[in-house]
Structures are given as structure tokens and as C-alpha cells.
Amino acid sequence: MPTTPPALRAGDQVAIVSTARKVSAEEVAAAVDILTGWGLTVVLGESITAEHHQFAGSDALRARDFQHQLDAPEIRAVLCARGGYGTTRIIDRLDFSGFARQPKWIAGFSDITTLNCHLLALGHESIHGVMPLLFNQTGGEAALESLRRALFGELVEYAAPPHALNRPGSATGELVGGNLSLLQNLTGTASDCPTTGRILFLEDIDEYLYNIDRMLVHLDRTGKLRDLAGLLVGHFTDPHDNAVPFGQTAYEIIDTYARQYDFPVAYHFPVGHEPQNMALMCGRVARMVVDAAGTRVEYA
């Protein structure tokens, strides 16, 4: 079973860093205020305000910053400020041996799927959830509260309404997943995420429909769908199509492959690049139930 980092308590220090795209102190100022309101002390990492083209500083700087926060005993959680691209460029520079002796919560989503999967491969839970850049987005209050509850060790449960493509059933397994593009990109690496017997959740943004199909083909051919306990399909935001239409929506594409198997499937689950992005503990055993009333997920 993956290890669970200690829950945060009032007075703890947390760090905000960027492992991917650049971000300014002004863009995370609202998050600093919110975290302070939760009773936490916020430390801004070296990567906040750093710039190297589109990145939050060079690969070396971002790796150094993240490593420092991993190793600093006074830092009890590390929140990734935003996604974009860049985490895979530094993941193999990082040393998690100190982290293993003193685990702490790492939280983020999108490009941070790399960290979520890498930590799980090393045997540690992490949080797939809203990032500081988006803490004050309109309509994101429930997602932010779910992150707070996850960090502080409080009960977090989830629900989604019925969807025409849902396949009823129940399943129990460790939650794994995140951004579909990253999950495909990590296949065959040290950050690869086995899915057998687990509940997989998927989301993505700004992808062409044909490419969503291509990634599902790849997941299926590599056996990542065959032995799932269950599948949660989140937001597939702002998909694109070609002049000659692909002919299916993102959900219909996923259904094409999921229907080959008999695990329960839930669509329109509140996770991904939209304000309804509930915090999921990657590696935590959860139970999902899909029936006529919709979908419910709770931790075992």
C-alpha cells in the first residue's frame, strides 16, 4: 500500500513552486492569502518569478527549487503553482530518498500528473487537485474546499450525475490517473503507472479528437484498460476537430474502447481543466458505485 503523508495542521509551512511554466508572484497572491487563511505559513520557491523562455526558470533551477522543498523538514506540503509543460524535463534529476524518510503532500494536476505517477511508482500517495494559479477561479469553490480537506486529512467524497454512456457497477481499488496526454507520455518510463486492479481517472484539454483516439488506442494496446477495476472519465475541455470531422465526441471515443471490457465506467466526473476539479488522492483505495442515481466515490 502506498504511504500516506501526514495531514497538515495549523501553523505548518507549505511551499509553492513551479515545475513547468513560468508564473508571477502576483498570479499566486490570492492563493497565498487563501492558504494563510487556512492557518498555514506560505513559502514561495525560487521558481516563482523565475523565467527561461516559457519555463519557470531553467531545468536546473526548477529541479533545484523542487528538491529543496522536498528535503526541507519544515516544509510539510509542496503545491505546484501551475501546469503547462516542463515537469517531465526535470523528474529524473530529482532525488526522493529524503522524501521517502519524511513524506509530505505534493499537489497539482495537468503537467503535474508526472509527479503524481512518479510518486505512486515510488510507493507514495499524492494529490491531484486544483493549483494555486486557479485558487480563486469562479465556480471553483467546491474544488478548493476538497483540496483543503484532503490536505488536512478530512473526509472527501465525490458525486456525479447520471450520464448516458455510464456503465453501472461497483469497484474498489487504488485511484490512479490524471492527464491522458501525460499518462501516454510516461508509458515505459520510471514514472509509468500500472493500472491493473486500479480505478483509472482521465482528463485532458485542448486536444484534437483524432489524437484522443490515438492515445486511447495506445492505452488499450499497452494493456492499460484491460484489467481496470473501474474508469472515471473527467473533463475533456476545448477539444478540436479537423475540417473533415472525426465523427465522435471525446466521450464517445473513450466509450469505443471501454465497452470492450466489463468494469464500471462513469462519465462527466468532476476532475480536470474546469472549475469542478475535485481533489483526488492518487494511490488511495477508493470505492466507486455507478447506478441510475449517478456516480459516487468514497475512500475505503
TrEMBL record:
Keyword Protease listed: yes
Gene3D superfamilies: Class I glutamine amidotransferase-like, LD-carboxypeptidase A C-terminal domain-like
A Pfam short name: Peptidase_S66
Sequence ranges assigned to domain LD-carboxypeptidase N-terminal in this UniProt record: 14-129
InterPro entries listed in its UniProt record: Carboxypeptidase_A_C_sf, Class_I_gatase-like, LdcA_N, Peptidase_S66_N, Peptidase_S66C, S66_fam
Keywords: Carboxypeptidase, Hydrolase, Protease, Serine protease
Sequence ranges assigned to domain LD-carboxypeptidase C-terminal in this UniProt record: 172-287
Domain of life according to the entry: Bacteria
Assigned protein family: Belongs to the peptidase S66 family.
UniProt name for this protein: LD-carboxypeptidase
